[in-house]
Write a structure and sequence with these properties.
By secondary structure, the protein is mainly alpha-helical. About 40% of the residues lie in helices and about 5% in strands. The protein contains 2 helices and 2 strands. It has a two-stranded antiparallel sheet. α1 packs across α2. It is flat.
């Protein structure tokens, strides 16, 4: 399990963020927190979070033009 970078509470290993919901909402407010999470989830779906990764288990990206 990953831990929140602020309070060290355990968070889901598959979370796109490195902080818990409580801390995220406390730092940015609920609306901005939800926007950040949605943007990060969208980036992961596009494969943008894997840039620079040395892992080989990720699906290949198609060429974009």
């Amino acid at each position: 399990m990953k831990k929140c970078i602020y309070c060290k509470k355990e968070i889901d290993e598959n979370s796109v963020i490195d902080f818990c919901n409580d801390c995220g909402k406390g730092v940015w407010g609920e609306k901005m927190f939800n926007t950040i999470v949605k943007s990060m989830q969208d980036a992961r779906e596009r494969g943008d979070l894997m840039q620079g990764s040395v892992e080989t288990n990720y699906p290949r990206m198609s060429k974009r033009m």
